[in-house]
Amino acid sequence: MQQRIQLTLFAEPEETLLIEKVRKAFNPVQFALIRAHVTLCREDMLLQKDMVLKHLSHTAHPFITIRFGKPARFAEGRGLFLPATEDTQFQLLRSHILQDISCPVIAQEPHITLIHPRNATCTDAIFEEVCRMKLPEQLTFKRVSLIEQINGKEWKPLREFPLRG
């Protein structure tokens, strides 16, 4: 059995309607696996999961609002994502929950993947179409979710940690 876990930020569904429409149309495999999200900590940062979850349980961090730029391609143009234009709140939350963790903390730039190159390919036509859309310029995140994936199937929530409004 292959298990993966991560800490993820899911925006409110009403804020991501157009993003989800893009993902469903151009990346249905990834759309079926996980909702639009910003990854806060990947599994390699969660080797001391109990300590990280303790920090999360005791956080009084406010909601996080992330501003996003224009869609950009990655992975030699095969992938498409919305990069964050500012990430101070994101980085502060990461610093708080990863304090006193003995493994090296790998930088994580917040973004929302629209087309994951493992499951789909962004063509020039798709890129132009998505760039013409009025995608959200910012999203507000009200909770941190601990999620799990077993054997490459759909990601499932295990626990949620509310942020303070």
Automatic annotation (TrEMBL):
Highest taxon listed in the record's lineage: Bacteria
Gene Ontology terms, MF aspect: ligase activity
Pfam families: 2_5_RNA_ligase2
Keyword annotations: Ligase
Protein name: 2'-5' RNA ligase superfamily protein
